[in-house]
Amino acid sequence: EEDPTSSFVCLLKKKKELQCLDKLLAEKEEAFQERMEVIAEQWRDLHARRAQLKAHMERSEKTVEENEMLRNQALQKAKKEREDNIKRENELLRAKRELEALRKNYHKLSQKLPKYSKFKRYLEDVVENSQFQDIEEITSFYNMLLRSRKELLQSQQWHKELTEKANMLLEQYKAEKEDEMLQCKNDLEELKQYLDQARSDVPLWENCWADIQNRAAKKAMKLRTLEMAIYNLFQ
After folding, report:
1. Which of 138, 118, 113 is nearest to 128 (CA)?
2. What is the pTM of this model?
3. Does residue 116 contact residue 135 with C-beta atoms inside 8 Å?
4. What is the DSSP secondary structure assignment for residue 1, as one 8-state letter?
5. Dist CA 54 CA 182 (whole Å)
6. Rounded CA gap, 100 and 106, in Å?
7. Dihedral class, residue 134 (left if φ above 0, else alpha if ψ from -120 to 50, else beta)
8. Residue 49: its pLDDT value, please?
9. In this predicted model, what pLDDT tens digit does every residue of 213-224 receive, in sequence order?
10. In this structure, how many other beta carbons lie within 10 angstroms of the beta carbon of residue 127?
11. Rg of the chain's alpha carbons, rounded to an integer?
12. Which helix (H) or strand (E) holds 222?
């Protein structure tokens, strides 16, 4: 028989071991929960870092795009400014040339001024001794004469061109009509030849027609004789 004391002692040992195991299991579970919390915290931190990194990358990409857009805008602005500078330089060069031309023209006019002064005094004398009221009226009359002369020359040139064109059309019409008359003469000559041939062929055709009529009369007579013979045969 088993000793009850030994059994009780063994039971206490087992119970104590079970308590130790429960305590160890509880500690392990607590450590596991702590570890899971740490891992969850690290996971949340990792997600936060990922979100921050994604936002940073998006901001970086946006910054790069903005920088690229600013760079393109700067290049376009520089290109436009360069074109504007070239345009302004060309305009300045053209203005310098025009200024130089104006200076040369001014120099020429300055040299001609004494002559025009004499001409002006001459016009003043003309005004005093004519029906004109002032120099402007004389110049207006002179310009009107120039316009009239120009219009007259243009009218003469126009009439000359019309006359030349009319003569050319007349020559062309004459040539066309001469060709038509020549063609008509040729056609008339050909028709005359046809008429002569037809007139020469008339006796031949008349003889043919008489021969045809004679043969037709003979055939009609033979047909009549044949009909009378057939009639008498059946009587």
Report:
1. 138
2. 0.30
3. no
4. -
5. 102
6. 10
7. beta
8. 84
9. 888 888 888 888
10. 16
11. 67
12. helix 135-233
Whether 125 contacts 114, CB under 8 Å: no
The mean pLDDT values, 10 residues at a time, for the chain of 235 residues are 58 70 78 81 83 81 79 82 84 82 74 61 65 70 83 88 89 89 88 83 83 86 81 67
Angle, helix 4-128 to helix 135-233, in steps of 10 degrees:
110
Helix (H) or strand (E) holding 133: none
Tokens 């805008």 map to which residue?
73
Please give the Cα distance from 18 to 52 (Å, whole number). 49
CA distance 18 to 42: 35
For the chain, helix (H) and strand (E) counts, in that order, are 2, 0
pLDDT tens for 44-100 read: 888 888 888 788 778 877 887 777 788 788 788 878 888 888 888 888 788 788 878
Place of tokens 């004109």: 132
Tokens 């019309």 belong to 162
Report residue 48 as tokens.
């936060």
Q: Which two tokens stand for residue 158?
A: 């126009």
Q: How far apart are CA 214 and CA 221, in angstroms?
A: 10
Is the CB of residue 141 less than 8 Å from the CB of residue 132? yes
Q: Can you tell me whether residue 3 is helix, strand or coil?
A: coil
Token pair recorded at residue 36: 């899971």
Which residues are CB-neighbours of 123 under 8 A, at least 6 positions away? 135, 138
Q: Which two tokens stand for residue 229?
A: 């013979």
